[in-house]
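worker-03 picked up job from queue 'complexes'. Input manifest follows; two sequence lines, order preserved.
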Amino acid sequence: MSSGSNSLIQGVSLSQWVGGNAWTDTPWLAFAAVLGGTALTIGFMSLTAMVLVYAERKIAAHFQCRLGPMRVGWHGILQSIADSLKLFFKEDIVPTNTDHLLHALAPALCVMATLLALITIPLSPSISIANMNIGVLFLSAVSGLGVLGILLGGWSSNNKWSLLGAMRAGAQIISYEISMTLSILVVVLFAGSMKFSTIIESQATGWWIWRVPVVGFVAFFIFLISSTAEINRTPFDLAEGESELTAGFHTEYSGLRFAMFFLAEYINLFIASSLGAILFLGGWMPFHIGHFSTFNHLMDLIPPGIWFAMKVCGLIFLSMWIRWTFPRLRVDQLMRLEWKILLPIGLVNLAIAACLILSEYYFFVWNPL
Amino acid sequence: MEITGMTAATMSNTEVPVSSLDERIKFFQNEPQSALATQEYFVNMGPQHPSTHGVLRLVLKMDGETVREIIPVLGYVHRGMEKKAEYIGYRQQVHLTDRLDYLCALMNNWVMADAVERAMKIELNDRILTLRTIFAELQRIQSHQLWWGVFGMDLGAFTPFLYGFRDREKITAIFEDTMGARLTMNYIQPGGLMYDIHPEFPRKVKDFLKYFKPILNEYDELFTGNVIVHQRLKGIGILDGKTAISVGASGPVLRASGVSYDLRKSDPYGVYSKTQFEVPVGTTGDCWDRYIVRMQEMRESIRIVEQLIDNIPEGPTMVMKFGAKIRIPEGIYYNQMETARGILGVMLVADGTEKPYRLHFRTPNFNNLWSVISMAKGLRLADLVAILSSVDIVVPDIDR
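worker-03 finished. Artifact:
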């Protein structure tokens, strides 16, 4: 296990640690490291999903003047564990005339895409699984894979409601990916790097959301909307749309396979919120105000991991707040919002950002090393 | 109706030409072989579907997301109420009316009881009429509260559902105090009321009104002002007054289309003629108008209850002798009232015995359902859900 945890330390990759090529020199160690890393990631993923499900249920309950889970453990804190156990033991029903292979493959594909996206997220300066120099590009690429799982799930279910949900999801996710990428590109332009840790370090003197007068905020706003659409949450939950499509693409899934869709959905929420925190809210960087050095030092005392967690939690709460307040958009309104409103604004915003970088007109100038 | 196993040609909108062989070959060559050819398909919405509120089944002919044709298939909760009436007495039939439109149980009781009373020429005292009116209006508020919650849920917002139910619970508790039941109350009887009201009833109603008036504004803040709600409702499902009348729509659906027709005003019963209230009327007849009309109706109902609750006259709550036989003289009788969803009519063919010879209910939801078909054609699936919910159908009332 020691090798596994060592490989997680940023800056000391396995190869550097062993010296030379890990896969040829010490294949067992390398294998153990990969295995350990995977196990840790999956463990982290399941735990986060459970916590998020519990948080969502509690937050929703309090928005709706009720208590939520109260019976299993103190204030229902073990409810998620009980629910996951239940899902494990539930019968896995596969309807007749489904495409069995694709039906089984779809949830796995969803989880795989989520897992791949998750490993790029640095949780603190010392905890990141894969801190690659093309982090942003990799994340945008693999997060798009998730829609394949949804499409396959809807297609292979042999159910017209599922198919409708899948087609909605396909159109929606592919469209909103454009806006999301445009808003991410603004930050990439300013930070001058696609590496997540570099992007975070570039915000040591100020977060990108306010460091660039208006552009940063517009980009953050577009990111917030398009990432909500990307992860299929209300008001963009058309792929599930339970009042229209019963349960959308996962109507015909039960037991563990449904749990996998569910897991992917909540981890996607975590990834989207972490991405928002990393790109616009300074990741693990503490909150500083100009020259109030006492205040700044106090803020520095809080460990970076906590800062990151706080920002992510804030964004997740915002997302849940939106979900339990807003009704759902219609499918044509959703498309209109993307192609006629968000996309032009995003493009103009990106152009202005490029001009700002050339003129170097932003608040705190930072020189990439 | 054959739904499955249809060929592409029969399912598509265009008819297969029958004139010449050449034309037919051309038709089949054009249709399926084109790479971008689309095909319409049938899908069953219901009997088990979250938005049909019960066991209504709509067979939809869809073109992608667009609804081309709606074929309602009824009868999943048909209980033969009208036929049963021929074997049970009038008094028992009143109990069955609870199960018509379960959200307007008291109003349904009232229609049936009133039909019997009019046929037998029974004079009721003011206490009975006032209490019946108060209960009917409370029930109207309660029904609209539930509708508001469900409407929100159908548009994808889950929170209104629980708000609506939370406040409906208060009225249900008031009903429970007096009647011992919460949904199917069996309270209004031919000749009066089953029991006198609970001594705390006026106070509790006043407390509720005091509580609920600001809550209505909260409803507006949560849902009415939302920009997505506006987008989803305005200009969707337009029902013009003429069509509304021709399909026999009534209640808020009719009034939202600009036809100011409310039996409480035009043909007052109970003590409505003694009270001041407005009849909210829409202009365009879209989902938004139906929404606003119902929200306004809740406020008007509060007004009516407020006027009546302070001066409930004294007197007995039953003017018939307990267990007296009900015999209606030979003839055909019709009585109608305004329930929360529209006009509920009951037609009695009496033959002088203790049982009706024939009985028929003219239920509001049955007619309102047909207005949905003309409204939703050519719109999206999500619009159909919004329209169904804005019409506020209760399926047991359709099937009876």
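worker-03 released lock.
Chain B has two domains: 8-73, 121-319+373-399.
The interface with chain A takes residues 41, 43, 49-51, 65, 152-159, 162-163, 166, 222-223, 226, 228-229, 231-232, 380-383, 385 of chain B (CB under 8 Å).
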